[in-house]
Each structure stands twice: as structure tokens, then as C-alpha cells.
Specification:
The structure holds two protein chains of two kinds. By secondary structure, chain A is an alpha+beta fold. Chain A has two domains: 172 residues, no CATH class; 94 residues, Alpha-Beta Plaits. Chain A is built from nine helices and four strands; from the N terminus they run H-H-E-H-E-H-E-H-E-H-H-H-H. Chain B is of the alpha/beta class. Chain B has a six-stranded mixed β-sheet with strand order 6-7-8-3-9-10, sandwiched between helices. Chain B has a four-stranded antiparallel β-sheet with strand order 2-1-4-5, with helices on one face. In chain B, a hairpin with a 2-residue loop joins strand 4 and strand 5. The chains are: A alpha+beta, B alpha/beta. Chains A and B meet through helix 7 and helix 8 of A and helix 2 and helix 3 of B. The structure holds adenosine-5'-triphosphate (ATP) and magnesium ion.
């Protein structure tokens, strides 16, 4: 193990430029991925805040019997998606409107404002599909005049989030592929540069696994370094955006660890693919 | 110990290097491989340490069969045999001592045992005073001694030598050859390819002579034939 570590450090000292290049490629591939994930995370945060405010409002026809309304409230409150359903009478609606409008309160007349049912959904049931489905079910009550919810913009936000996630994944995969290829090339050069040493190792009976180990470790180390560098770059971008454009949230620990692990995986895969192929040739 | 059974070898790029070769090397035997350049001597040695596998026939070395061998087994086999070459194949940036230790390190030998083993081997090949010398600071003969010491780290049952004296002057050649004889006297078989007919003539070891990929003379068979002839000849 100590020998493996020594060999790995030696690899960095032997080809510092090449090592730096492969660390940079991993860093930039993860950085581009990181930016998109950052956007996706912040959109998701925004969505979550919006989602908390998602409510369905069903306007009730004038003259609906109180018993029918109470029964409907009970029914709707028992929907699996629904957190709570409150009945708002005409008077209450008027009160609220007056409270919100302040000095203009007197222009309102109870007759303008219909009674309604205010429905709040449980977390996890606030996506556009579920909201529409619940709204449709509420609409089936004969005394419900109209059902409103912020359909348009809930949908828009979801679309933006999905787009950002997809773009991030596609770009991330593309850059990861480039990083794997570059790591592969640097490992190839490292293998060729050490061809003589490797052939001697073979001759005296070193196993393939033993010969491969320092190269894999080298790839792993480069991947982790690249991941950390990418994280630093992303953090820098994040603080720049937060200072100049909008306040954004940075990654939580889980995403940070996942990012570094992804870097390690790229480095490891790049070396594994390359070293397997080139070792057979020396 | 080492057995070739109707072995032919054709390289992917190149013609037939070995053509139906059969022989057997017994435990503790010393055998020369001779013959003109391109006869197939190195090819035979490569088949023994399984750097190459036969195109036809079967090579059997210490219970390992070329027909069924897996890569991992080849690594294990190489720990049981030593190989030296004309060009020594030492690592330039490592000292004599480190070159020998390298063979132990890369086979995951227990660390504690390495130092004593290395110094014992350096003494055996007569180089204990040059332990810290780099290969470029050693003469050809001394470098070959380091290579031989490295080949002996795992107490091999056979030492394979491909023209070990090819780059050495007469004096160094005699020294290295004497070392090989001593190693053989201690029980290790030696299979040595050489162009040096002087060495072959001066010793009475077995000689296998090759030409164009075939065995054209084998002193062991000649002796057996002579014995058979002797018996069948009426007194
Ligand atoms: N890797 C290879 N690929 C193709 N042909 C090869 C290869 N190695 C050897 N040969 C050919 O096989 C034949 C036997 O070569 P080999 O090296 O066994 O000869 P040799 O008896 O050791 O010769 P020398 O005395 O010059 O070392 C030669 O014709 C050579 O050109
Ligand atoms: Mg040869």
C-alpha cells in the first residue's frame, strides 16, 4: 500500500503538466455540471416556496344550502391529497378584502364577493398534475361555480426546473465523457512512459492488479482534486451571482459529497478503461 | 519440470518461429540452447516463462499448462522462475539493492523479510560492496550479477538466461558463467540460450541445438541413442 501511494505521488511529479491538465478537465466538466445543478437547486427552492402557497379556491354559487357546503367540506377534507379545506363565507371574504384594501374598504359590498372553499394540499401533492386533478374533482360539485389555482406559473416553473436539470445532465455527461477521454490519454502516456518498469514488474511476477493499482489511484486522486476544484469554482460563481444578481443558495452537504464522488468516479473510470487496454501492450 | 510437446509457434507478424519442437528439462538440469540467429532460442524461453503461448502443442512448466493457463497463473508461475537477459533489464534510477528489492516489493512479499534477503543475495553474487551503486556505476558483469540476484529472490526452480553473457568480455563472461554453475550446483535448473560455443564446449552440460525453428541436435537424446546402440550392438 505504501508502495502504491509512493508510486502515485511519483506520477504527479513525473508529469506535472499532464496531471494538471487532467485535473482541470475534470474540474471544468464538473463545474459546468455544478452551475446547472446550482440553477436547478435554486429553482427547486423557489418552487417549494411557491408550492407552499399553492391553494385551490372553489367559488360557491349564491344560495347554496349550508348543509350541502358542510358535507362538501367534509368530503374534500378527506381527499388523500388535501391537507385542509376551509369554508369562507361571503362575510369573511368581505372582511379579508377590507383588511387588505385599507382605506378603500367601504367601496365593497358583500354581494360582490362569493363564498368559497379554500383547499390546501399536502406536501408532495403540489405538482401541476395533482393540483389540476384535485381541482377537477372539486369542480364536479354542482354548486361550485369556478375553481382557480395558479396553474400557469406553477407549470412554467416546473418546466424551467426540468429544463435546467436536463441541460445540466446532458452537459455534465458530455463533459464527463471528455474528461474520461483525457484522463485515459494521460494514463496511456503514463503507462508508456513506465513501460520498461511495467515489463520488469511483469517479469518478476507482479499481478495485473498490482500493476494497475497506482494508475487507478492516480485517476482517483485526480478525480477527487478535480471535484474539489470544481466545487471551489462553483462556489465562486455562486457568490458572484448572489452579490450581483439574486441571492442564491449553495449546495447542501449531500450534493457536495455527490459531486466529489462523481469526480472520483470519472477519474477512476478514465484510468480503468485506459490502463486495462494499454497494459496488455507493454 | 519443463516439457514441450509438439510445440509450434507462429508470430502474428512473422513466420513460423518454432516448428514441432519437443523436449524435456529435468529438475536441477543445466541445458544450453544454441543455434544461429533467428533459430528460435528466445522464442523457446518466452514460451517457458509464458510471455508467449504456443500456436500448436502444449508447454508445461511446473504443472502449468499453456493450453489452459490464465493470466493470474502466469504471474504466479513467474515467481517460481527467474529470468535474465543480455541487456540486464535493471531500473536505471534504482540502486543494485533497490533493483533486487523491487522484485520482492511488487510481489507483495512481507516487508520485514526483504532487507535480509536482499543482502544475502548480494553476498551470493559477490556484490555486497556495491549495494548502493546505480546500474550506470556498475560494469556489465556486475549489472548481470544484480539481474541474477533479482532473478533468484523467490528461490526459483529454474533460471532462464537469454544470452546472459552476450554483452560481456571474456573475464566477465567466465565470472557470470561460474555463478550460473554454482547456482545450478545448489539445485536450481538452468536453461541458457547462448552463442558462446566456447562455454558450451568447456562444460559437459546438455546442449540443445536449434536451426530454423527445429531441434537439430540434443545431446541428451544422442547419449540415449548411443546407450541403446551400445546395448543392441552384439558384443
Ligand atoms: N515478436 C515477434 N514477432 C514476430 N516475429 C518474431 C517475434 N519474435 C521473434 N520473431 C521471429 O521468430 C524467429 C525466431 O526468433 P528468436 O528471437 O526466437 O530467435 P533467436 O534464436 O533467439 O535469435 P538470436 O540468436 O538472434 O537471439 C525469427 O525469425 C524472428 O524474426
Ligand atoms: Mg534471441
Amino acid at each position: 500500500m505504501r508502495l502504491t501511494l509512493r508510486e502515485t505521488l511519483l506520477a504527479f511529479r513525473r508529469a506535472p503538466l499532464l496531471s494538471a491538465l487532467s485535473v482541470m478537465t475534470i474540474a471544468f466538466s464538473l463545474f459546468s455540471l455544478g452551475l446547472f445543478v446550482l440553477v436547478a437547486v435554486n429553482i427547486r427552492d423557489a418552487l417549494q416556496q411557491v408550492e407552499e402557497r399553492v391553494e385551490i379556491r372553489a367559488y360557491i354559487a349564491d344560495g347554496t344550502p349550508v348543509e350541502a357546503l358542510a358535507a362538501a367540506l367534509g368530503d374534500i377534507g378527506a381527499f388523500p391529497e388535501v391537507a385542509r379545506a376551509d369554508g369562507i363565507s361571503q362575510e369573511e371574504a368581505l372582511e379579508r378584502a377590507r383588511a387588505e384594501l385599507g382605506e378603500f374598504r367601504d367601496v365593497f359590498d358583500a354581494a360582490f364577493l362569493p363564498a368559497s372553499i379554500e383547499v390546501r394540499l399536502k406536501p408532495g401533492f403540489r405538482d401541476p398534475e395533482t393540483v389540476s386533478a384535485v381541482a377537477a374533482r372539486i369542480r364536479t360539485y354542482p354548486f361550485v361555480d369556478d375553481v382557480r389555482f395558479g396553474e400557469e406559473w406553477v407549470r412554467k416553473l416546473y418546466n424551467i426546473r426540468n429544463l435546467a436539470t436536463a441541460a445540466g445532465i446532458i452537459l455534465g455527461v458530455a463533459f464527463a465523457a471528455v474528461a474520461i477521454i483525457i484522463i485515459g490519454a494521460t494514463i496511456r502516456m503514463a503507462v508508456l512512459a513506465r513501460g520498461r518498469e511495467i515489463s520488469i514488474m511483469r517479469l518478476v511476477g507482479a499481478t495485473d492488479g498490482f500493476i494497475r493499482r497506482p494508475f487507478l489511484l492516480e485517476g482517483l486522486a485526480k478525480g477527487i482534486l478535480g471535484g474539489i476544484l470544481a466545487l471551489a469554482l462553483t462556489y465562486f460563481a455562486h457568490s458572484l451571482i448572489s452579490r450581483t444578481l439574486v441571492a442564491t443558495r449553495f449546495f447542501d452537504d449531500r450534493i457536495i459529497i455527490a459531486g466529489i464522488a462523481f469526480g472520483a468516479l470519472i477519474g477512476f473510470l478514465g484510468s480503468a478503461v485506459s490502463v486495462g487496454r494499454h497494459l496488455r501492450r507493454v | 519440470m519443463i516439457r514441450f510437446i509438439h510445440v509450434s509457434k507462429e508470430y502474428a507478424r512473422g513466420g513460423l518461429a518454432l516448428d514441432d519442437v519437443s523436449f524435456h528439462i529435468a529438475k536441477g538440469e543445466f541445458a544450453f540452447l544454441t543455434g544461429p540467429s533467428g533459430a528460435g532460442k528466445s522464442t523457446i524461453l518466452k514460451l517457458v516463462y509464458m510471455e508467449e503461448l504456443p500456436t500448436e502443442g502444449d508447454v508445461r512448466v511446473a504443472g502449468v499448462h499453456s493450453g489452459t493457463v490464465r493470466r493470474a497463473e502466469i504471474a504466479q508461475l513467474r515467481r517460481k522462475l527467474g529470468v535474465v537477459f543480455q541487456d540486464f533489464r535493471l531500473l536505471e534510477e534504482r540502486t543494485a539493492e533497490q533493483n533486487i528489492a523491487f522484485a520482492l516489493e511488487v510481489t507483495d512479499a512481507p516487508r520485514a523479510s526483504i532487507a535480509t534477503k536482499v543482502s544475502r543475495l548480494l553476498t551470493q553474487v559477490g556484490l555486497s560492496s556495491k549495494a548502493n551503486a546505480l546500474p550506470r556505476e556498475l560494469s556489465g558483469g556486475e549489472q548481470q550479477r544484480v539481474a541474477i540476484a533479482r532473478a533468484l529472490v523467490n528461490d526459483p526452480f529454474v533460471l532462464i538466461a537469454d544470452e546472459p553473457t552476450g554483452n560481456l568480455d571474456d573475464r566477465a563472461t567466465r565470472g557470470v558463467f561460474q555463478l550460473l554453475r554454482d547456482i545450478n550446483a545448489a539445485g536450481t535448473a538452468v536453461l541458457m540460450a547462448t552463442h558462446n560455443l566456447e562455454l558450451v564446449r568447456r562444460s559437459d552440460y546438455r546442449v540443445i541445438e536449434m536451426n530454423r525453428g527445429q531441434i537439430v541436435y540434443d545431446s541428451a537424446e544422442a547419449a540415449a541413442d548411443a546407450a541403446v546402440d551400445g546395448r543392441s550392438t552384439p558384443a
